[in-house]
């Protein structure tokens, strides 16, 4: 094969190949183009806003400086793959007896789908021009959003997610590092203007200021990354969101320019489109693995998913779901038992709650029983109406 004679020619051919593979966004930047992002990351970590995500701090040096991650890289190719929802995700929040699952998690695991395409693109590049490549899809210490902004794909909005003038907010990012020198793009300018819809819609006030995120208050963090019990003050605010949250993405005005999804694998699976909370609460380990095979939801495991489901049941305050929570009071997992106790403390009156109370060897679960009883007594409330 005749190899191209210029970085610009190679870049044009690579972009055409990326489009043929289904990528809707393409841009190139230098590995050292995000130096300011490293400084912002270090401040964010120093403030503790990463919560339990210790891996963010452990690999901060690589994350902050792509040239440290792979010193031989001369270009970073950033790709965008759209996954726009078929309907407004905020509509799912209205049916509180059913689960709201983040749009990106309703289909196939994007890590697997996008990485396969990136590897195909990388193989084409090696065949066409030689060199070496590494591909990353949200599983390595790579700051995809600042790199994508530097590559001209879009800009980091006030919600800290990337926004594109042509794709809106609904797209995955992938990175292809190469030792080849490709023609670079200019960074994208910020187009948020005075809009603050993404900040105002957040149910947990996770944005201390525009362009700043406190992950410890973010529902995506609380339902996916957090391994222990969800803080009590956050539980009622989560609503029926059991995996992630799309609120700040859904209200972005730039979404009116988002086109249709190109990758059929991202289409919502019927069983993940507003499943009943009571049904999800009945999943054992085998059923969990069967239902969520090939889904990104599988990464949090059955216990954390049921923690989220029980939190949603408690937030709904619909007594008809009390039996689903009661069945989990003797679950082997303390995380699940504690969440079940909290849910029942929101669904039952004092007498009914006291009748179910039992000793628990786990201190955290025992505390949930005590706090639940105290809160019911403090409010002196009757049983919620179904």
Number of helices: 18
Low-confidence stretches: none
By helix and strand content, what is the structural category?
alpha+beta
Order of helices and strands: HEHHHHEEHEHEEEHHHEHHHHHHHH
Shape: elongated
Q: Proportion of β residues?
A: 5-15%
Tell me the span between the first and last alpha carbons: 70 Å
Which percent range fits the helix content?
40-55%
> Major sheet: size, sense and barrel closure?
4 strands, antiparallel
Tell me what you see in this structure.
The protein is α+β, with helices and mostly antiparallel strands. It has a domain at 279-386. Helix content is 41%, strand content 9%. It contains 18 helices and 8 strands. The protein has a 4-stranded antiparallel beta sheet with strand order 1-2-7-4, sandwiched between helices. It has a two-stranded parallel ribbon with strand order 3-8. The protein has a two-stranded antiparallel ribbon with strand order 5-6. β5 and β6 form a beta hairpin. α14 runs parallel beside α16 (334-347). The longest helix is centred in the first third of the chain and has 20 residues, at 110-129.
Task: Give the SSE layout.
Layout: H1 7-20, E1 25-29, H2 35-46, H3 54-58, H4 60-64, H5 66-69, E2 75-82, E3 100-101, H6 110-129, E4 133-136, H7 144-150, E5 155-156, E6 162-163, E7 171-178, H8 197-201, H9 219-225, H10 235-238, E8 241-243, H11 247-250, H12 277-280, H13 285-291, H14 301-316, H15 322-326, H16 334-347, H17 350-356, H18 363-379
Parallel strand pairs: 3-8
Antiparallel strand pairs: 1-2, 2-7, 4-7, 5-6
Helix pairs in contact: 1-6, 14-16, 16-18
């Amino acid at each position: 094969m005749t190899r191209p004679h210029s970085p610009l020619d190679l870049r044009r051919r690579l972009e055409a190949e990326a489009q043929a593979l289904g990528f809707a966004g393409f841009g190139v930047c230098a590995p050292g183009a995000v130096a300011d992002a490293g400084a912002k990351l270090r401040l964010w970590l120093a403030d503790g806003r990463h919560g339990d995500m210790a891996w963010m701090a452990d690999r901060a040096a690589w994350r902050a400086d792509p040239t440290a991650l792979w010193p031989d890289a001369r270009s970073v190719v950033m790709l965008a793959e759209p996954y726009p929802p078929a309907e407004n995700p905020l509509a799912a929040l209205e049916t509180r007896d059913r689960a709201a699952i983040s749009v990106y998690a309703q289909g196939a695991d994007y890590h697997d789908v996008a990485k396969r395409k990136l590897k195909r693109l990388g193989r084409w590049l090696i065949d066409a021009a030689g060199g070496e490549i590494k591909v990353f899809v949200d599983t390595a210490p790579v700051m995809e959003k600042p790199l994508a902004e530097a590559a001209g794909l879009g800009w980091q909005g006030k919600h800290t997610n990337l926004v594109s003038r042509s794709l809106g907010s609904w797209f995955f990012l992938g990175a292809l590092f190469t030792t080849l020198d490709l023609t670079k793009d200019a960074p994208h300018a910020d187009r948020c203007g005075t809009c603050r819809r993404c900040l105002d819609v957040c149910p947990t006030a996770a944005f201390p200021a525009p362009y700043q995120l406190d992950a410890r208050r973010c529902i995506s963090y609380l339902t996916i990354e957090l391994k222990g019990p969800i803080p009590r003050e956050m539980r009622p605010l989560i609503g029926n969101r059991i995996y992630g949250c799309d609120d700040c993405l859904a209200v972005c005005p730039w979404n009116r320019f988002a086109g249709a999804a190109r990758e059929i694998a991202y289409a919502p699976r019927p069983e993940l489109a507003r499943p009943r909370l009571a049904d999800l609460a009945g999943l054992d380990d085998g059923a969990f693995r069967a239902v969520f095979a090939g889904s990104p939801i599988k990464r949090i495991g059955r216990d954390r998913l049921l923690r989220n489901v029980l939190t949603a049941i408690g937030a709904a305050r619909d007594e008809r779901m009390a039996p689903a929570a009661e069945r989990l009071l003797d679950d082997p997992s303390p995380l699940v038992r504690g969440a079940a106790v909290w849910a029942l403390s929101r669904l039952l009156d004092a007498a009914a709650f006291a009748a179910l109370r039992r000793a628990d060897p786990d201190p955290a679960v025992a505390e949930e029983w005590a706090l639940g009883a105290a809160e019911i007594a403090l409010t002196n409330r009757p049983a919620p109406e179904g």
